[in-house]
TrEMBL record, chains A, B:
Region (Disordered): 1-32
Organism this protein belongs to: Mytilus galloprovincialis (Mediterranean mussel)
Stretches with biased composition (Polar residues): 1-29
GO cellular component entries: early endosome; endosome membrane; Golgi membrane; plasma membrane; synaptic vesicle
Domain called CBS: residue spans: 652-718, 748-806
Protein name as it appears in the record: Chloride channel protein
Regions that span the bilayer: 119-139, 206-231, 280-296, 308-332, 381-401, 421-438, 492-513, 519-538, 559-577, 583-602
Subunit: Interacts with NEDD4 and NEDD4L.
Length: 811, 811
């Protein structure tokens, strides 16, 4: 049997695409009484959670069905874990649009409906943007509060976080000592005074820190495990796959949204080495999916829905970094597949709305959307490009090291017993993280806060260790210039170095555990530490050699050199993130929006480009593409060029020695014969030919449509029996002796995309990518020879990349 | 005869695509002795100017030809005014790439060549960026100097402009009076003292201003007329057409570059209501084209060359507005057609390099790339969204009014005698502009300078009329807040209003005259004037009603309200420009890069969106698309959705009553018969079929390739005579009695893109757009029925849009 558009694979997929969670579901099932059905749980859960929201509403889209000539309902929908047919979906939408435009003349109400339809895209992205902004605000506030909960609690109002608590008490400083309202756990447990007591207090704080971390992490992983297994990880690889035209029901449902939001707060608060910026994209995409069901135009058309999802992804990054333009470019560069100009505009609008809402919520109290917003004014010098390029190369090195290690560890997890104990793994990682990170103040603090400190200039009011410079004058201007560093700076450097080792390693084991986890923030932290270290080194080098002609233009006088170590930290962060994700333009724009200074684009761009080039030289894939490959998602990467010389005849099914292609003739098969084909094969669709001898192609019919039509006719149409002949032709002979014929021309796609057997595969791949095909028929001199499905193409690409084609698609 | 891929159209095109200049060439030929060949001049000029640079270098691309199986040279090139075949060009490039990769193993030199090939894209865009930055710097400096020349000259160093002149003399103010080195013409001509003399001096200045303007304008139009007729206009419509896959030889050649650069300086200096920002895109694209010939990978492959051109367009906007990100988005949103991610990265790199070079040149001496860079810090209030939306609506109204009027005037010019006197028209417009603009100081000044003044806040040091506020205190902080306006502000408002009327009207007649002219700056000036007027109105309204609860949050006290009229000017400028060009995201980003303040994105976005919606409601096309339609360029707009229900059978040639399609059989036609087809038809290509009875499609052969191959065989191949049979099949019978067969399978495209006759035209249009097809063959049940070329599609789109299909393509 040929493997043409095979349908039985859907069950394989069902367990396959859930690869990241499959190991667990069979073992840790006792703590979950909601749905205890063993291996099949995931699907059941998916179906259950999304019955209302994921199944398209036939009733509300009944006017669509009118235009589709009263076909039985359900035609034009997709099964779970199937590939969508973009051309067909977009054609369906145009048909719907024409129907509405035609009806507009009929009356006032139809005019209103038509206007509603025209505006619904904008309204939908506005709603999605507002929702994404709200979600981000709530998550930011919740995560801050819970993070502070690890250290203490506000005496009079437990719902306030540390900063708000101190603020409400009108204290001037936010240190543990200076804030009277804020009680650390050791204070509450009564261990305050005396030197010995202080040591005891430290131990109490330490233990409670670890305890809270473990509790938070356990809650997060249990939530994820019980309510929405899809909520783990960053979600970006899956969203890329979905946007490329794949159906994963429930991945963007409301339970996933809720679980991911709560799980993210808990996981961040647990002090794990992960960020909430990547998952924001998933959360925003969930909002996009949910709101698209308010508008049948988008909810019941998978291709159109992806326009909303692209915009939602932009909104996700917009709220994650306060960078609406960067978000749009991220969606364009990294996530989206089909990105028409209209989507560009709507993405921008959506990203803007989200940023506006988040700014109104103002979760960090600094009038900016992120904790680590900075503003530099100092110039940079041409000589500094050398360390910037060096940072870029380091970022590329780290990126490919991290990707290789992380993928190796994830593969080990999948193939070993470890994968069967996800909650235990989460607890283990949390325990190690909490125990090792508490003693070092730079790893103990919130990672966003660490990045903020590393990015910031040392202003007049800064008393942190990193800003302990030996300043001779106290004038304001001297604070912005570089001088000889004090001892505390060197202490801080050592602590940062230790923190770097710790963060660099623990992130490898953290990204991939079964809690919501992003790696923007940990990668940036690693890069920022390296950058700050290099920056301070450069600064001291210049300050000590300010007479050297090479450095002369950087120093006005002996005391006044303008080097900003914070800028190095930012460049380092961009380079590390670039090395891990291989983003370029969008990353630079995000960084640019974080600083608001156009002048740093050149350093950032150089570092990010170097990082990408170095990274690409050591390993082609970014972390998201690597995870897509690891999990075997059917993703046809539009970035990679297909450079082989194979032709369509090499790829099509049936192969040379296979049985011939399973086809339906246009006017000679009975209902019974067609039903026999359904039983014998599992193909998703069948070519219709003139006659089985000539094999000249007439059209293509989908299995799902054909089954529905036959079932419908058997039930409702008089005279249709097993002996009735199925006609796809326009002329149907009218013989009263024969059983009533079954006319199915209207479900026949008479314009299937065809190619010749000599077509180079690069053209075929291009057509699959750009037209969003699901399959194409292969002909030679007009005769049907075979079929190529998207999965055949993916298998072929994998094979040419020296990978096992089956492992690529179904692990 | 069917009109399939018709070639005879090229001559029609030749005069047609030059629509903007054709009227002139037959009449004003006396002042041009270089090339006086009447109507055919343009082609001659184009060919002459570009013989060396535009004709691909066959010699340097000989290694490419090796991989193409030693085909005769010239195969794979295009005629002038023809459409390119993207799929084929990209396939050719991959073949070349594979060839180089294969050769890499052979030795060190091949490794170097391979590395050079891999990097050549980056090197090329770097060179293009640097060149674009240099050109922009030179043009900026030259235009400033020449503009000042209209008023006076530097006494001791004539090559300095006014600002540099005063600077060199260490004068503190740049006014006419305060600068000792700068001599106005009236001073030089000796009319200084006394009241009467002052009046005389004014008249002298006025006359000399007009005189200089006329001289500059005449020089500009004569340069354009004599050296490069393609240098007139903004060039963006033509670049859009070229990027969509059309060949206009000489449009991006070095003569065009030189003429456009010089002509731009002259035209701007003449004080005409035009800008140099649009033409910067053309200049950058010329650089892109010229440098692409250094790299055969790009120079000899039209599809690949367009990647460089897209990047160059981004660089053009980058230097025009100092907005690299905006430039990339402009290229993506407005100009480019085929924009893969790799091009995104390279465009960004190119735009950055250009901006970096221009900043190093620092033409305006303000460390920014544009004259009107501003920095705001004041917040905006929610109530202000009402005037912002109002400004957006005004911008949309103005935009569609301007577009309609301008197109009507251009159409009148084409169809009347006016078009035959282009230089006279330029002189007339210049005379009117100079006479009317001198008395009003806001229209007399450089338009960029006007925009700068309108955008700027009134700082403490500002003594301009627009900043004459009644301030009670002299503290610094009071200067940034709004108070009651003084009398001079009202005078300024009246002058601005008159200037608005003048600029709004004269621009309609200016855009389209035969000098290099952009309309970014004039549109922005119109919008900025309206914005500033509305802004001052709003400011005074709030100041006078600061107790009104609606305005209360905008004023801290009676004297301190924070309204920035400059922000209104900026919003107005964005709205007007948006109304004219219908740009959205890129425009907002450009404005955002001009201000460097993320916080103004919401007002800008709202205004630009309103402007686009209002504009679209009144007329669909932006000015560039309107000019494309006016000139009949074969541009298949990818922004407009095709919403009709026609199918391929309605569009294909031959039509129902036409003679059958002209085909070649694969193994039964003689050389003579094929040559007869060449004589009788003008098609660009011929389908090859199994036999003329069955009409089953085998492949497609290009006329050019077939002619070259036959001519080549007749010359070099023994035994090939008129009776030889042309074989496209793989089996060639070996009969010694027959004349030697001519085997041409290797020039046969055995994978032509085919569709069925039932394919909806929306799918066909989609395929043409996304795959960059030149033609597609139409089949029914495997039999060849007809052909659809890109021009057929364009004609069909025009027809459905109720336009005369022939007028669209060939006027």
């Amino acid at each position: 049997m040929t493997d043409q558009t095979s349908m039985d694979l859907s069950t394989k997929y069902r367990s396959g695409a859930n690869g990241t969670t499959e190991g667990r579901s069979s073992t840790v099932s006792t703590d979950d009484e909601l749905l205890d059905i063993g291996d099949g749980r995931m699907e059941a859960l998916g179906n259950w959670a999304d019955l209302e929201e994921m199944e398209p509403k036939y009733s509300s889209s009944s006017n669509l069905m009118d235009t589709l000539e009263d076909l039985p309902s359900g035609i034009g929908q997709y099964e779970d874990f199937h590939t969508i047919d973009w051309l067909r979906d977009i054609a369906r939408d145009r048909m719907r649009h024409r129907h509405i435009t035609k009806k507009r003349q009929e009356g006032c109400w139809e005019k209103v409906l038509s206007a509603h339809d025209a505006w619904s895209g904008w309204v939908c992205v506005l709603l999605v943007g507002v929702a994404a902004g709200l979600c981000a605000g709530i998550i930011d506030i919740g995560a801050t509060w819970m993070s502070d909960l690890k250290e203490g609690i506000c005496k009079e109002a437990f719902w306030l976080n540390k900063e708000q608590c101190c603020w409400s008490a009108n204290d001037t400083t936010y240190d543990d000592e200076g804030c009277s309202q804020w009680n650390t756990w050791s204070e509450i447990l009564g261990a305050q005074t005396g030197k010995k007591a202080a040591a005891g207090g430290y131990i109490v704080k330490y233990l409670l820190y670890v305890l809270w971390a473990v509790v938070f992490a356990m809650l997060a992983s249990m939530f994820v495990h019980s309510f929405a297994p899809y909520a783990c990880g960053s979600g970006i690889p899956e969203i890329k796959t979905i946007l490329s035209g794949f159906i994963i029901r429930g991945y963007l449902g409301k339970w996933t949204l809720l679980t991911k939001s709560v799980g993210m707060m808990l996981a961040v608060s647990a002090g794990l080495s992960l960020g909430k910026e990547g998952p924001f994209v998933h959360v925003a995409a969930c909002c996009g999916n949910i709101f698209s069901y308010l508008f049948p135009k988008y909810g019941s058309n998978e291709a159109k829905k992806r326009e909303i999802l692209s915009a939602a992804a932009a909104a996700g990054v917009s709220v994650a970094f306060g960078a609406p333009i960067g978000g749009v470019l991220f969606s364009l560069e990294e996530v989206s597949y089909y990105f028409p100009l209209k989507t560009l505009w709507r993405s921008f609008f959506c990203a803007l709305a989200a940023a506006f809402v988040l700014r109104s919520i103002n979760p960090f109290g600094n009038d900016h959307l992120v904790m680590f917003y900075v503003e530099y004014n100092e110039p940079w010098y041409l000589q500094e490009l050398i360390p910037f390029i060096f940072l870029g190369a380091l970022g590329g090195l780290y990126g490919s090291f991290f990707n290789k290690m992380n993928i190796a560890w994830c593969r080990y997890r999948k193939n070993s017993k470890l994968g069967q104990y996800p909650i235990v793994e989460v607890l283990g990682v949390t325990l190690v993280t909490a125990i090792l990170s508490y003693p070092n103040k730079y790893t103990r603090m919130n990672t966003s806060e660490l990045i903020r400190q590393l990015f910031s200039r040392c202003g007049a009011e800064d008393k942190t260790m990193l800003c302990d410079y030996n300043r001779n004058s106290t004038s304001l201007s001297s604070y912005t210039s570089s001088t000889v560093a004090g001892d505390e700076v060197y202490t801080a450097l050592w602590m940062l170095f230790l923190g770097l080792l710790f963060k660099g390693l623990i992130t490898i084991f953290t990204f991939g555990i079964k809690v919501p986890s992003g790696l923007f923030i940990p990668s940036m932290a690693v890069g920022a530490i390296v950058g700050r270290i290099v920056g301070i080194g450069m600064e001291q080098l210049v300050v000590r050699n300010h007479d050297n002609p090479f450095f002369q233009n950087m120093c006005q006088s002996k005391q006044f050199c303008t080097i900003t170590p914070g800028l190095y930290a930012m460049v380092g962060a961009a380079a590390a993130l670039g090395g891990v994700t291989r983003m370029t333009v969008s990353l630079v724009v995000i960084m640019f929006e974080l600083t608001g200074g156009l002048q740093y684009i050149v350093p950032l761009m150089l570092a990010v480009m170097t990082s990408k080039w170095v990274g690409d030289a050591l390993g082609k894939d970014g972390i998201y593409d690597a995870h897509i490959a690891l999990n075997g998602y059917p993703y046809l990467d539009s970035k990679k060029e297909f450079t082989h010389t194979t032709i369509a005849a090499d790829v099509m099914r049936p192969r040379r020695n296979d049985p011939p292609l399973c086809v339906i003739t246009q006017d000679s098969m009975t209902v019974e014969e067609v039903e026999a084909i359904f039983r014998d094969t599992s193909h998703n669709g069948f070519p219709v030919v003139l006659s089985s001898e000539s094999q000249y192609l007439v059209g293509f019919v989908l299995r799902r449509d054909l089954m529905l039509a036959i079932a419908n006719a058997r039930k409702n149409q008089e005279g249709v029996v097993s002996n009735s002949i199925v006609y796809f032709s326009s002329q149907v002979p009218n013989n009263p002796n024969d059983p009533a014929p079954l006319k199915l021309r209207k479900i026949l796609d008479m314009a299937p995309i065809t190619i010749t057997d000599q077509t180079p595969m690069e053209t075929v791949v291009e057509m699959f990518r750009k037209l969003g095909l699901r399959q194409t028929l292969v002909t030679h001199n007009g005769r049907l020879l075979g079929i190529i499905t998207k999965k055949d193409v993916l298998r072929h690409v994998a094979q040419l990349g020296n990978q096992d084609p089956e492992s690529i698609l179904f692990n």
